[in-house]
Fold this protein.
Amino acid sequence: MDMKVAIVGGGNLGTAIAEGLLYGHQLEAASIYLTRRKTHLLENFTKRGVNVTSNNEEAVNACDLVLLAIKPYQVEAVLREVAPVLTPSKVVVSMVAGVSLETLSKAAGEHIPLFRAMPNTAIALCESMSCIAYSKQWESQKDVVVNFFEKLGSAIVVNEELMSAATVLGSCGVAFALRFMRAAMQGGIEIGFSAEMSQHIVAQTMKGASELILKSGHHPEKEIDKVTTPMGVTISGLNEMEHQGFSSSLIQGLVASYRKIERAK
């Protein structure tokens, strides 16, 4: 990528993006600006050549693509802070959950290209699922944003009204998947494996299951059918999980997270 990127907000998501850019060799460290008030917490990036600063305006002024990885209550103040150096030649991408393009535009200015994106922390390994929304007036800048996130995993464009759902399914979804992994590991220990061996088996099994779906495009049930023989051990385990509310509890968790976002708007 031939650009300079400002990541405003050096928290968990902001640093994950910086890691992904370095991990995938998408940008030279000198082309990345990372901001945080407590810059000493980002010494690891300073040592690797990333431009670390507490000055948001300085970072935005130096860059072509501006990524907002901050808290919802900070976004309007930060946009007003950097407004003097925002120009139509820069593209601003907000990764702030629950803050609309309309609100962003009022704070940044209607002449500034604005996008919303929701990646997840797997972006640190260039394995993110990123959902992107934008107003049609910025169609000409769409490819810049989509291509950026595709270099860091997979990216799709969705209507803005689906961004809350995208946050739950794609971003919160990492935690939900990892909680399943933890439970499966605990089960593995109970039936005889060491903690380390159980973790390895579960993680690789989850990776393989994901690849089966991503590469084949099959519905999960089609792959499940291949390992559920009549009166077999797999169907016995699946049925017991369903009796205990496995699918229902997962769906209810997704809906609960979605309602939380919607109430916060």
User: Anything to note?
Assistant: The chain has a mean pLDDT of 96. The chain has two domains: 5-158, 167-264.
